[in-house]
Amino acid sequence: FSSAIKQLTGINKSQSRFKRLKLVTGEKFEFEPRIRQDIDNIFLVSNSKQAKLIIPQFKFFHAGDLPIFANSQVYSKQSKKYSDLNDIKFTTPPWTFATSNKTTNKRYQNFNALGQDSFNILSHLSRIKRNPNYTFNGAIGAISINDVGQLHRKLEWATIKRGKLTKLDINAIK
Asked: By the 8 A CB rule, do 82 and 111 touch?
């Protein structure tokens, strides 16, 4: 991933400028590559395994101070080590914060939560249709319905702190 990260952050151009400057002046001087100044944050689309490889490279290539946002696939309850993902911000279904889950196979927890909510929301559908502001708080998120009958879900914000999944206040996101 390093060549892609160097290109995206502009480190490769910074290194090229250094080489040209050194060639033109013939002088030796200290150099620390700089990332592009127009990057405000990073949005990472990856799974947990890939993110654990990519995030440390951002830090190595001087982009470690940028806020990193990711898709929900970046976190998997199947993995135990998350220290490389500290401070990454992502959305996730509320069930991921549950300490106990009846599903024995962790691979199917998303499907279990979806099945639970599909069953439980049936008794709330008429209320949801009558009141456009009504929200059903389920295991997969806060579920509401729009004017044309489409279901929408709102996920929870999360981060990794000291290797542990932590709920994140949406107002704290910068």
From this structure: no
